[in-house]
Design brief:
Strand 1 and strand 2 form a beta hairpin. Helix 3 packs across helix 13. The chain is 71% helix and 1% strand. The protein is mainly alpha-helical. It has a two-stranded antiparallel ribbon.
């Protein structure tokens, strides 16, 4: 049937009618704040005075020379690498275990998801006590096992604080990616696995040659979410350490908050927010291009 004569084809007025509320809300709460953030990055403004003072590229030049900003960028990429290196293998392992276990492991599907259900604020407050160097659970266990040399100031030592908090972030989000991979595994047709088993593909061979290739899209999606989430992560970092000690756990998002709302430099904070948007958008675009190219090659 010709598209012009198709009675089920939506017409332009109908499309505009249904899409306009979404477009309006996105423009109001997403696009406009991003554009206004770029505009404010060219001003010196405390957020309190009436008229911002134009400074041209002054904020951008200051940001490029700001060691604390680059420390936040470095910490974001540390969190990203730890997220990919820890969450992907563990989440895949748990998903495969739950998938192979079937109904016998049903209770664990709920148990493993508990960390993700907890508020980040609650997790941060709880683990500040766990990481406490004097009375915390980790050091108490190490001392009880006569491993005093391994009892460290987990979030008070600038050299290891970022790794401690990043490990906690990974622990909290592993359940989410486990369920993501488990849903992808459940989506594999049973006929495919049965045919592979007849051909001799069992256990690890089945995982490597059948299951992992078929859930490859979900793995790439998880990596994309990790990139975006890690580079703009804020809540647990802020609750645990406030970006300290000595900015050792500061990310671009926590440093932005400190600059804009504690030092009352909204103009400079907008510059950092704009840079954060550029970094996250660029990384997401690169992952999308790499993913698209790999799909074409396969």
């Amino acid at each position: 049937m010709s598209p012009r004569l198709d009675p089920f084809r939506p017409k332009a007025p109908t499309l505009i009618l249904f899409l306009s509320p979404t477009v309006l809300l996105l423009s109001l709460f997403l696009i406009w704040p991003i554009l206004d953030s770029f505009r404010l990055s060219f001003y010196d403004w405390s957020g309190l005075n009436v008229e911002p003072t134009p400074v041209g590229l002054g904020n951008w030049e200051e940001m490029l020379k700001d060691k604390n900003f680059w420390l936040g960028v470095r910490n974001g990429f540390i969190l990203l690498l730890m997220s990919i290196g820890i969450q992907i293998p563990l989440s895949l392992g748990l998903a495969l275990l739950l998938y192979r276990g079937g109904q016998r492991f049903r209770i664990f599907k709920f148990t493993y998801f508990f960390p993700f259900l907890m508020s980040s604020v609650a997790v941060g407050i709880l683990f500040r006590q766990v990481f406490d160097p004097n009375f915390g659970l980790i050091n108490s266990i190490l001392i009880a096992l006569n491993l005093d040399a391994l009892a460290l100031d987990w979030i008070g030592d600038p050299k290891i604080a970022i790794y401690s908090v990043s490990a906690l972030v990974c622990w909290q989000y592993i359940p989410f990616y486990t369920l993501l991979f488990l849903a992808a595994l459940n989506g594999i047709p049973s006929e495919v696995e049965e045919a592979a088993a007849i051909d001799g593909a069992k256990n690890w061979k089945l995982v490597k040659q059948i299951q992992l290739p078929l859930i490859r899209g979900s793995i790439l999606t998880a990596m994309t979410l990790m990139v975006i989430g890690s580079l703009k992560y804020f809540d647990l970092m802020w609750v645990m350490t406030g970006g300290g000690p000595l900015f050792s756990t500061s990310t671009m998002a926590t440093y932005l908050y400190q600059v804009a709302f504690k030092s009352y430099r909204v103009g400079y904070g907008s510059t950092i927010a704009s840079a954060l948007f550029i970094v996250v958008f660029t990384m997401a675009l690169l992952i999308n291009l790499i993913t698209r190219r790999s799909r074409i090659e396969n």
